[in-house]
Amino acid sequence: MVRLAISVEGQTEERFIQMVIVPYLQSRSIYAVPLQLGSEGGDVYLPRIKNKLHKNGAWT
């Protein structure tokens, strides 16, 4: 099993990932989750990404 986190800027990108990319990848045993990081000012750094991954269950 492969898990993939995809960084998105807003709701439009998040919805596209959920509606198009996730089903496509799931059919290939790749489980993707969109992570909207832009809602917190757009300052993307490793601790914020790690926190989002933990909250979304994408990182164990």
- What's the alpha carbon Rg, rounded to whole Å? 12 Å
Major sheet summary line: 2 strands, parallel
Low-pLDDT sequence parts: none
Mean pLDDT, to the nearest integer, reads 81
Count of helices?
2
Cα-to-Cα separation, first versus last residue: 14 Å
Strand segment count:
2
**What percent of residues adopt helix (DSSP H or I)?**
40-55%
Strand order of the largest sheet: 1-2
Strand pairing plus helix content: what structural class?
alpha+beta
Count of folded domains: 1
Order of helices and strands: EHEH
Q: In one word, what is the shape?
A: flat
Percent of residues in beta strands? 15-25%
Protein name: DUF4276 family protein
Organism: Candidatus Scalindua brodae
In short:
It comes from Candidatus Scalindua brodae. The chain is an alpha+beta fold and 60 residues long. The chain is 43% helix and 23% strand.
Structure description:
- The protein has helices at 11-26, 46-55, and strands spanning 2-8, 30-36.
- 2% of the residues are buried.
- It has a two-stranded parallel sheet with strand order 1-2.
- The protein is α+β, with helices and mostly antiparallel strands.
- This is DUF4276 family protein.
